[in-house]
From TrEMBL:
Keywords: Antiport, Cell membrane, Glycoprotein, Membrane, Mitochondrion, Mitochondrion outer membrane, Phosphoprotein, Transmembrane, Transmembrane helix, Transport
GO molecular function: antiporter activity; organic cation transmembrane transporter activity
Protein source organism: Suricata suricatta (Meerkat)
Gene name per UniProt: SLC44A2
Name the UniProt record assigns to this protein: Choline transporter-like protein
Phylogenetic classification of the source organism: Eukaryota, Metazoa, Chordata, Craniata, Vertebrata
InterPro entries reported for this sequence: Choline_transptr-like (IPR007603)
């Protein structure tokens, strides 16, 4: 019978091929240039890691260090009895660069204890409090300079604020009194230069510094937990694997019962929620203040206040009732689709049962992702701790050395000090003067970009491997007799041997979009304090557009990887063929879209039902017609689901 289907706007429909039995074994390398680029990028990534490990000091992440890079409280040093780190101006810790450099751009010294009182240098330098104030100045400070010179040189902080130690760092002792932030008994503070500022500036600075500190502590706690309880983690993974296997086996026989039980449980939980809201609504009847409306109450930072209002429970009850009604209506009108979904789950569990190694492959993906995360995190830490305190020569006159770097320990006896007696060596910033230090921000961006690229490559490798394995199952006419030996390992070998470049290409596109989204998030944080509404609107639009673009690329990549696994074509050809295949059949029968949902989970993993019933089933319907010459490859259950049959030779 001649195939009457013709070319259309979405390409030529797949034609019957009697030799087609699933994944093509005779194939060539694809997207070789992208493979070369990936290898070169990995070599460069390793080089960046080596350079970062050479210059960085991870102890700076764990232990506090002063502006000279000396550790606070370290035995055998002059700071042995000074375990706490004191920030001259913690407000500067609100800078977004703190997250990149793990340092606040303000002088820091080691002290014996944190300040416990409020003092300004203007008030203390000529009073009996100076001896107390002096311990928070730079080591060796003598009160032989004017106030303006001391503050300009950064010899002493302009103001001391009552602080408490947290992880050996001094943070302002900020507390809330009746919803108002205060330091001591004040809601404002004098900055030491004659101006009064709001406590919220201190809060923002302490929040950023504390955020970095919490990130450090979290990383250390995670590392310590892994070293102490790694065997429990392994036991948990083994138990999870056994439970997953048992769950998949049960799905084959009890899928209908399990699905209906979960649906009924959701309905019962929502019903109980409605009952509970009604009982709370009735209990609050007559209580003082419970009849205040939400509009009159306004916004409250303590959300527990809303639970004492009858209107709150009425709103909860209405919302839950609407959800309950929607679910019941969906069950009434989509009951046939639910039956189809149950059958799909059974078929998926049957496929996994024939390809049992697919249960173990996620461990390979997990281990590779852990390797990517560990390398990225360690490189980021070493890069962040590569910064050094930079001191420069400052002079009010015409000193020829003004602006040049200096060493504060040797500056007094240096040639610059003799030629410019009024000059002083003052802390300028954290960073460095070398090319490496100037490139730190770019290296951090490259580190993040390579992490996204490699992580997406690992996920793509998993998708192609599983797609190839399940394609071998699907295109076996007599299951499981025609199923090849070790389909998962064969698919994994084909993906690495022939299609590393295609996987690198697809993951590169996704990584570019993701790094752009990260930069937009960074810019959004910078613009939060701005009052430019147009800039905020534009930023929101860009973030939304790139979010949608990332989801579309994930969808396109997943379908391209399935075509790569089957036909061995390059990435662009595979993406085009997959998209055209879907569009041709949606136009012909929109109901087929149900067999190919547009998106899976956030990690991009394609579950067994999609890998089986997506492009495979659609292409099977396009290639074959159920005749003896062109039988359907789908399983009997799928044929019953789609009302398809294979005719015997005598019938045709």
């Amino acid at each position: 019978m001649e195939d009457e289907r013709k070319d259309g706007a979405y390409g030529t429909p797949q034609k019957y091929d009697p030799t087609f039995k699933g994944p093509i074994y005779h194939r060539g390398c694809t997207d070789v240039i992208c493979c070369v680029f990936l290898l070169l990028a990995i070599v460069g990534y390793v080089a960046v890691g080596i350079i970062a490990w050479t210059h960085g000091d991870p102890r700076k992440v764990i232990y506090p260090t002063d502006s000279r890079g000396e550790f606070c409280g370290q035995k055998g040093t002059k700071n042995a009895n000074k375990p706490y780190l004191f920030y001259f101006n913690i407000v500067k810790c609100a800078s977004p660069l703190v997250l990149l450099e793990f340092q606040c751009p303000t002088p820091q010294i080691c002290v014996e204890k944190c300040p416990d009182r409020y003092l300004t240098y203007l008030n203390a330098h000529r009073s009996q409090d100076f001896e107390y104030y002096k311990q928070f100045c730079v080591p060796g400070f003598q009160n032989n300079k004017g106030v303006a010179e001391v503050l300009r040189n950064g010899d002493c902080p302009a103001v001391l604020i009552p602080s408490k130690p947290l992880a050996r760092r001094c943070f302002p002792a900020i507390h809330a009194h009746k919803g108002v932030l205060m330091v001591g008994n004040e809601t404002t503070y004098e900055d030491g230069h004659g101006s009064r500022k709001n406590i919220t500036e201190l809060v923002e600075g302490a929040k950023k510094a504390n955020g970095v500190l919490e990130a450090r502590q979290l990383a250390m706690r995670i590392f310590e937990d892994y070293t102490v309880s790694w065997y429990w983690i392994v036991i948990g993974l083994v138990i999870a694997m056994v439970m997953s296997l048992l769950f998949i086996v049960l799905l084959r026989f009890l899928a209908g019962i399990m699905v209906w039980v979960m649906i009924i449980m959701v309905i019962l939980v929502l019903g109980y929620g409605i009952f509970h809201c009604y009982m709370e609504y009735m209990r609050l009847r007559g209580e003082a203040g419970s009849d205040i409306s939400l509009v009159d109450l306004g916004f409250q930072t303590d959300f527990r206040v809303y639970l004492h209002l009858r209107q709150t429970w009425m709103a909860f009850m209405i919302i839950l009732s609407i959800l309950e009604a929607i679910i019941i209506l969906l069950l009434i009108f989509l009951r046939k689709r639910i039956l189809i979904a149950i059958a799909l789950i059974k078929e998926a569990s049957r496929a996994v049962g024939y390809v049992m190694c697919s249960l173990l492959y996620p461990l390979v993906t997990f281990l590779l992702l852990c390797l990517c995360i560990a390398y990225w995190a360690s490189t980021a830490v070493f890069l962040s701790t590569s910064n050094e305190a930079v001191y420069k020569i400052f002079d009010d006159g015409t000193c020829q050395f003004a602006g040049k770097t200096c060493n504060p320990e040797t500056f007094a006896s240096s040639n610059e000090s003799r030629l410019c007696p009024d000059a002083h060596c003052q802390f300028a910033f954290y960073g460095g003067e070398s090319g490496y230090h100037r490139a730190l921000l770019g290296l951090q961006i490259f580190n993040a970009f390579m992490f996204f690229w490699l992580a997406n490559f690992v996920l793509a490798l998993g998708q192609v491997t599983l797609a190839g394995a399940f394609a071998s199952y699907y295109w076996a006419l007599h299951k499981p007799d025609d199923l090849p030996a070790f389909p998962l390992f064969s698919a994994f070998g084909r993906a690495l041997r022939y299609h590393t470049g295609s996987l690198a290409f697809g993951s590169l596109i996704l990584a570019i979009v993701q790094i752009i989204r990260v930069m937009l998030e960074y810019l959004d944080q910078r613009l939060k304090a701005a009052e430019n509404r147009f800039a905020k609107f534009l930023m929101t639009c860009l973030k939304c557009c790139f979010w949608c673009l990332e989801k579309f690329i994930r969808f396109l990549n997943r379908n391209a990887y399935i075509m790569i696994a089957i036909y061995g074509t390059n990435f662009c050809t595979s993406a085009r063929n997959a998209f055209f295949l879907l569009m041709r059949n949606i136009i012909r029968d929109p109901g087929l879209l149900f067999l190919h949902p547009p998106y899976t989970d956030c990690a991009g993993h394609g579950p067994a039902p999609q890998l089986l019933l997506g492009p495979y089933t659609v292409e099977d319907l396009e290639r074959n017609d159920g005749s003896a010459e062109r039988p359907y490859f789908m399983s009997p259950n799928l044929k019953r689901l789609l009302n398809k049959t294979n005719k015997k030779l005598a019938e045709s």
